[in-house]
Amino acid sequence: MSPDTTITSRRTVLKVAAAGAAVAAAAAVSSRAAGGATAGGSAPTAVVIGSGFGGAVAALRLGQAGISTTVLERGRRWPIRPDGNTFATVNQPDGRAAWFSTKPYINGLLSPPIAPYPGLIDRIFGNGVDAIYGAGVGGGSLAFGMFTSVPRKVDFDMIFPAFANYDELVGTYYPRAKKVLGTSPLPADILAHPQYRGARAFLNTLRDYGTEPIPTDFAVDWDVVRDELRGLRKASVSVGEGPYGINSGAKNSVDRNYLPAAEATGNVTIKPMHEVFDIRPRERAKGFVVTAREIDDSHNTVRVTTFEADYLFMAAGSYYTTSLLVSARARGTLPALSTSIGQGWGTNGDFLILRTPLREDHGALQGGPGNVKMYEDRLPGGPVAMNYQATPFPEYAGGFSTTNLIQTHTDERGTIDYDQSTSKTVLNFPHPRENTLVDQRASQFAWHFHEQTEVRYGYPANGLPIYPQAADFGAACTYHGLGGVVMGQGADENGKVRGYDNLYVVDGSFLPGAAGLVNPSLTITAITERTMDRFVATL
After folding, report:
1. Helix pair angle (10-26, 174-181), 10° resolution
2. Exposed site from 25, 421, 431, 517, fewest CB < 10 Å?
């Protein structure tokens, strides 16, 4: 990477070195330096499809085990530029905002048309619900809101099978994932800054409601945020940016820790702009042949390339991993795949609300990404969690609004199915749009919360909690689609996909439709760390 495409400074170099040390320390992994050997005596090979949280972990641990690994990523690289202009922004989206679309997928109704480009955000338009995914080297970690919470045991156990073993994850794998990702809570000095009055206002609101704020960890380099507040870096985290990427470089996405460490092993090659469209077994040995289109910025096919490997790790995100497998089963290239693959897709119980107007000024461009969350265990229907989520509202909108992500338990699940008439897959969510159990429970909680924190204190009752129809979120769209190759169903507890040897799943499709009232990023990372420990131990 040339000096003109990335920020370099003595402090940045030290931080990269520290991140490398964290990776090495966290690699108290059962890796074997030389890896195993195939039946023919040659060194083993692997392909990883996708480079998000799961794919990045798989790539690093495979590389450390001495396995020659190719990572295929459909999106482009997004190096942080010195001029602070790597990514589009929420209020000024352009082609970088969306995956080959003429409109951005967030705040799209308020935006003029954009030029199609291999942008960061892809939106799956399903029957009953939509889902958002990241595209690029780093996958969903480039677009996620930086929240990295460990779920409560009671919520985890309500969703996951017993063999998921919460205590093992908390004892070993959550700490390892947090160390490599560089997670930590919002520091007190940043919370005290005028830009973070929204975060302080949320603390006041929780006090009025009578609940305990639970600090949240974030995958953020707070020193870079301090530079933002001093005017030394592009204002990004400190003005509520996030879904389209962070131009200051403060987001600890996996292209800044796991993936560079994987490439540094000398055993891992990342190939951006490679769209996989075919998977089939090798004919003369165990393993797989993967075929991909190399695409350009206009989505033209530059060339078609095949890759052979002894092991295949699926990490393309819950929709695309499942779609590739469902398609391979339907087309007969992987006919032995379990009929459970494609089942159990869920929305993580997400419900995004806009609260407005509020008594207390939160600021228009709110310092982020958040600070704390709350749990409500006293209402009918089961527990509910809510995060403060900083938002970059346009300056003309004022500061008496904010967004909150509510999460609640639900057994509602959908499927990813192959449509023979179109030869494509489709996301089907057979629950009434805008009237799911998530919608009902989250809306009831939102009204209750509003009454206790605004109306109760004399603010006009017409300040109503509404979900933002203009952005088409609420329960109608999720950033956290999970499931499709669910543990104990489409795959075994070790991530091995049922029906084929040497085929593994290491992303959100492995989770059972929800993550236990938290952003799933840290759980995906931790479970993949465990999956890779178990895999390497078999070599």
Report:
1. 160
2. 421
SS3 323: helix
Burial class of residue 28, CB neighbours in 10 A (0-12, 13-18, 19+): exposed
Mean pLDDT by 10 residues, the chain (539 residues): 36 44 43 41 91 98 98 98 95 94 76 92 94 97 97 97 98 98 98 96 95 96 98 97 95 98 98 98 95 98 98 98 98 98 97 84 92 94 93 75 91 96 96 81 89 75 53 79 98 98 98 98 98 97
Q: State residue 32's pLDDT score.
A: 32
Would you state the structure tokens that stand for residue 322, as one six-digit string?
A: 């499942």
Token pair, residue 115, equals 């030029």
Q: Which residue has the tokens 């497998």?
A: 325
The rounded distance, in Å, linking the Cα atoms of 81 and 240 is 19
* Inter-CA distances, 260 with 15, 146, 253, 271, Å: 13, 19, 11, 13
CA distance linking residue 23 with residue 180, whole number of Å? 5
CA–CA dist 147, 140 (Å, integer):
12
Q: Give the pLDDT of residue 37.
A: 45
Task: Give dist(CA 118, CA 133) in Å, integer.
Answer: 13
Domains of the chain as residue ranges with CATH:
8-78+122-144+149-182+253-346+417-426+478-539 (3.50.50.60)
Q: Within 13 Å of residue 96, how many CA atoms lie on the same side as its CB?
A: 19
Kindly report the pTM of this predicted structure: 0.92
Nearest to 335 by CA among 213, 498, 140: 498
- Residue written as token pair 């006293």: 378
CA distance linking residue 305 with residue 295, whole number of Å: 11
Report the alpha-carbon distance of residue 501 to residue 336 in Å, rounded: 11
DSSP three-state, residue 515: coil
pLDDT score for 87: 97
pLDDT computed for residue 8 by the predictor = 34
Dig out the tokens for 391 from the structure: 């938002």
Query: 500 to each of 83, 299, 312, 483, 497, how far by Cα in Å?
Result: 48, 32, 10, 19, 6
- Say whether the peptide bond before residue 380 is cis (omega within 30 degrees of 0): no
Does residue 369 contact residue 202 with C-beta atoms inside 8 Å? no
- CB–CB of 499/336 below 8 Å? yes
The closest of 531, 312, 284, 323 to 415, measured between CA atoms, is 323
CA neighbor of 59 nearest in space, from 273, 269, 281? 269
C-alpha span between 504 and 48 (Å, rounded): 9
User: In a 3-state reduction of DSSP, which class is residue 62?
Assistant: helix
Q: How many CB atoms lie within 10 A of CB 229?
A: 18
Q: What is the pLDDT of residue 503?
A: 98
* Lookup result for tokens 């870096």: 233
Pseudo-torsion of CA 446, 448, 452, 454, nearest 10°?
A: 50
- State residue 391's pLDDT score: 87
Report helix angle 174-181 to 521-536, nearest 10.
110
Cα–Cα distance for residue pair 136/75, rounded to 1 Å: 4
